[in-house]
Amino acid sequence: MSFLRAADARDESGHLISELHGIKLAQILEYLVAAYGWPELDVRLRMNCFADNPSIKSSLTFLRRTPWARTKVEELYIKARSAEVQGRPRP
């Protein structure tokens, strides 16, 4: 019996989710806001752009200028999206 690892999860197009193939940062952020909401993103990632008057535009500006923050957001997206594709609850 085999199982899929989070790194092996594929989206509807067949691309590995961990590769973020063709996915824009705005799409990632919109997905996370829809899945978790701004308050939960702040709790999970501890970034002021999610806590203090959050918006997609201001968060994108911050994430594009701050590599460590973008990496954390992308990692949460990969975990959440992989869980969704594999039918598991979001982390």
Features:
91 residues, mainly alpha, 59% helix, globular, SAP_dom_sf, Transporter, DNA-binding_VF530-like
Rg for CA atoms: 13 Å
Report the end-to-end length measured between terminal Cα atoms.
24 Å
Tally of helical runs? 5
* Major pleated sheet: none
Structural class based on helices, strands and sheet pairing: mainly alpha
The tally of strands reads: 0
Order of helices and strands: HHHHH
Write down the overall geometry: globular
Walk me through the structure.
By secondary structure, the protein is mainly α. Helices cover 59% and strands 0% of the residues. It has five helices and no strands. The protein has helices at 25-36, 38-45, 48-51, 56-65, 67-86. α1 (25-36) crosses α4 (56-65), α1 (25-36) packs across α5 (67-86) and α4 (56-65) crosses α5. The longest helix has 20 residues, at 67-86. The mean pLDDT is 84.
Task: Compose a concise summary of this entry.
InterPro entries: DNA-binding_VF530-like (IPR018668), SAP_dom_sf (IPR036361). The chain has 91 residues and is mainly α.
Lay out the secondary structure.
Blueprint: H1 25-36, H2 38-45, H3 48-51, H4 56-65, H5 67-86
Helix pairs in contact: 1-4, 1-5, 4-5
